[in-house]
Structures are given as structure tokens and as C-alpha cells.
Amino acid sequence: MGLETGTYISDLLPQNPPATDPRSQGADHLRLIKTVLKNTFPSLKGAVTLDQDTLNALPTSKQDTLGFTPVQQGGGFDQGAGKIYLGRDTTYPGLRYSYLAPDGETVTGGGYLISSYGPESGGAAGYGQIGDISTDPNGRMAWRLPALGAAYITGALYSDVTAETIRATNAEAQLLPLQNTGPANIDYGGPSLPYSLRLQTDGNLVVYYGNSPIFSVNNEIINLSVSTLVGEATLSYNPVPLSQANSLVSAEAVARADADATLVSGTIGVTAANSDTNGVSLYRNGGSGRPTFVYSSGTGTLAGDIAWAGDLPFSDSSLKMQAFSVTVVDGASVAFPTAFSERPYLFLTPQHNPESDPNKASNIANYYQDTLTASGFVMDLRALWTGGGATNGETNAIEVMVLAIGTMG
Fold this sequence. Notes:
Helices cover 15% and strands 28% of the residues. It is of the alpha+beta class. The longest helix has 21 residues.
């Protein structure tokens, strides 16, 4: 029986059907032929008029038909996938681009592609390509190199240049009017203030008011002469060499720093209306051994020793202390020798005997908080084992030192 199975024309067997097949199987062969034809040519809806020569001459891909290599539109890094239009501008000699808006229908106005001269790294004449050019939020031109993520470089507007020129002109107008009247003299101040800076041949630098010297530098000595000629009082002084003056200033600075270091407080926080006074110094009194505080009295300074804590008397006679030792086991009740009038402060120190158990690191003595009363408490003894083991109840009798402080009577 020669009926094959198949999906496409290539699946048909030329030797089927054999002459021995029954006539009734002919319908099956016809149905198979129809099936493979429809599967092989699923898109054909009408007659195909191309002959075999034309079909054999068809290219194997769309690129062969185009005759050039196409470029994908969009889909790259930080790019949309919309359609792009590129062509020569109808008015200006340059390339203009547009693109399809996200609605899939509107074509945007786009812009111009930049034409630049030279390779990306700079040509022989120093020219290079510009990757992008636009304006910043202030309307200034900004451009950057072709590299992805390159920083923008902002150019100056004409108004920026003119504004700087105006600023420089205004600044120069504020300068003292200088007039070079000779190779060693500079006059300034104008007719009403006839100042003159003179670089004398003897090496001195002298400032004159009219014909009177008012300031000079000579061999590290500074001379200052201010007279009534310029409306000021006469100043008398003994000039000193510049090196000596620097030394004196340095010494004064050191003395000021040393004085500041001795101050206890400044004036911040001092309120005269509250009769506050400023602290001056704090030192140890060699006679009493106590700290001494020196403060301002308004007309001078006063000093007084500051008491140590041990100098203060224990004034609360109602506080009493009881110290005693007990040998107890965990959970034992302990009574104070004399009852307090209220719950006292309690301090416990256990004694440890390592011979009782070599694996025991130490003991911990405490008390159950809710059992402490004015007359006694319940002991909470724990054993701490070597190696970081957990504590648990102490099963042996342990001597514990007890210190209780509280009020009586």
C-alpha cells in the first residue's frame, strides 16, 4: 500500500501510488497533494505569473535587492525605536533629520546634522569633530566631543564679553589716579591731595605730602611723620629696625597666647544685671592643697578655695550602714541585724573557694528584687564555670559579705 505522509512538497514520494494500489485509495492521494501545496505556498491568494527563469533569478535576501548595507533605525543605547527621516534641507545646504513622534503618526521638525572637518582625534591642522552642539539653559552655546558622555563646553555670548569690558572699565575708574612724572616718582591723589611716591637714588622709599616726607623706609628702619599739614595730630616715636619690630610683634603674640591660656572663662554668659563676674584663673593652692578659683569683683579680683568632696560633712544622721557576713545557699533568706525603716541599698560580695570544684570560675551573689524589704532579703547564688559556661544555681553554702545602707528611726 503506497500512501506516504507529508507536510510540504519535498515530503512527496514520486513512486507513489504504485499500480497495484486499489482504486479506492486515489482520494487519499489527492487530499495529500492538496495539503502539501497549501502548506508550501500559504501566502498565495491568486495566480503566480512568474516563469521559472524569473523565479530562479530572484535574490536570496532583501539586502541583495537594495544593493547596499542598510542601517537599523533606533533601538541603540538611550535611543527610541521610532522611524527616522534623513535628507537634504530644501533651503540650506545641509542634512536635516526628522523622526516619528511616539504617537506613531506625527513627524517632528527635527534639526540639522552638524558638518565638521577633521577626524575625531584632531586633524593635521588641529581641527576636530564636534559630537553635539546646543544651547544651555542660559542661552549660551554648548558643545562636546563625539565620545559618548563627554562633558559639555560652554561658550560666551557677545553680551558676556561686553559686560566684562564694562566691568573692567568701571574697576579701572575706581583706581587711584596715578601719573608717572619721572623714572623714580609717582604722583597720586590729585591737586587737593598732593601725594607723591618717590623711589630715591639712595635706595629709600619715601611718601611725600607736597614737599614734606610723611613715610619712609631706610635700612630696615620705618619712619612715620604725620603732621597738621594733613589735618592730623603730630606723632612722636622712636624708630626701630624692621627686624627688631618683627621680633617685638612676635613676642607680643606669644604673650597674648600665654595670657589667653591662663583664662578660665571669657565674657560669654556673664550677665551684669545678675551680678555675674568673670572667672580669671584656676590654680592649686600649695598651702591648703585645694584648687583656688580667682574671679573679678568689679574693682579687683577675689580668690577662694574649692572644697574637695571629702571636706563636706555627712549631714544626714538618719542614714545608717550595716556590714556583716553570712554563709548561705541559693534561695536562703537573710535578715538584717537591725531592721531599717524602709528598703535599703544592698551590696553583696561572694567568697569563692576554688578547692570545692576546680571547674568553677567564680560565684555571683545577688538578691531577688521583689524579696528585698526593710528587714531582709532572699539570696540568689550563681556559679560561673570555666570555658564560658552558663551560670546556674550554686548548690554549696557560700560565704557572702553584705553591705546595707538605709534610714533607721
